[in-house]
Amino acid sequence: MSAYRFLVIENSEMSIKIITDILATAGWSDVCVARSSLEALTILGLVKDTEIPATEIDLVLTSLVMADLDGIELCKRIKSAPRYKNVPVVMITSSEDREVQEAAFQAGIQDYILKPFNSVFIVPRLKAALQLKDELEARRRREKKLERHNRNLVNELEIAQQLQKNLLPAALESNQVSISGCYLPIGFLGGDLYYWECLSDGKIGVVMLDVMGHGTAASMIGMYLRSILPTLLKEADNAKDFIAKLNATMLGFNEQVQQGEYYCTAFCLLLDTVNKTAEYVNAGSPPVAFFEGAKVRWLEEGCPPVGMFPQLPIKSELFRYDQGSKILIYSDGIEALFSEKRLKMEYLLNYIQMYGRKEASTAAVIEKFTDFIRAFPRDDDISFVYIDFLEEREL
User: Fold this and answer.
1) In 2, 149, 183, 363, which residue has its Cα 20 to 30 A from 87's Cα atom?
2) Domain 6-143, classified CATH 3.40.50.2300, yes or no
3) CB atoms closer than 10 angstroms to residue 99
């Protein structure tokens, strides 16, 4: 039998002898005896201004009737101490008064033993009390372990979150174009990603990806794709070629994993700031808004999401832009949010146009729109990229 330490609080020597004999017969020989409530509190380390260290106790057996402090009040004192929260207190009494028993249970006793003592009833009830104590303490240890694990996991996720944010590009400001973006995951990590890079001969590549799902797996796939985007953009002959290469990359990734097939939506935009043209492919992303003065044209030409089919029927579109034109690229989280709130996409367009006229930079427009989006509870990651084609100016 496991080693337990008992505290018997009783002012009757005969009762002490009977109880200790019963405990010893059951295999419990580690017994402390207190003949008053004050002595019991001292043993438990619950008396102020005393240098006597507390004794570890696994179960308390206390008489209801004590000279200085009755068993009910003593139980309240014991249970008020956090370290004795799970230590069972069993009352010893000859009273079968229901009001007394109710008051004892309200004070925190776990069980009671009636005099005269009968070992046939006492030992099983003490075993049951100790078993419950052990289970409570085991649960507390599991909860602490889980709490430490969760705390470590949160710390690791915060680091991963910061790394994911660090992979997003800084705002691009030139004398011809201004590009800014914002990423709002619903958790620590998400599957949205945007990227832009200045290429050769005045060309700029802009990409937005949305990997299926949320959380760690989607974010890790996104980070992997982010690591190869610079190479894909530099090696691609055009937007169609970029999407084809990205599709081949996702198909190759799916061959390496066993959990299922992953795919992502993508929007690739290649800007030629010398000739003021733009080529794009929309691979399953929401329609992208191209603002030409007061008019809005939706950029939808493309193909299904990448990673689903070996051969994609990719279509691209080439168009010209003028200074003052603007482009808004956004993930499907925006569509889902607006649909849930019963807002039409025209609201978004009007919002962007209004602040696009007022604010001096795309970063300021993005900040205003981000504040607007944060006001709503969301069920999906949200990303958006805002591009403003500027009149040529000296920086």
Assistant:
1) 149
2) yes
3) 8
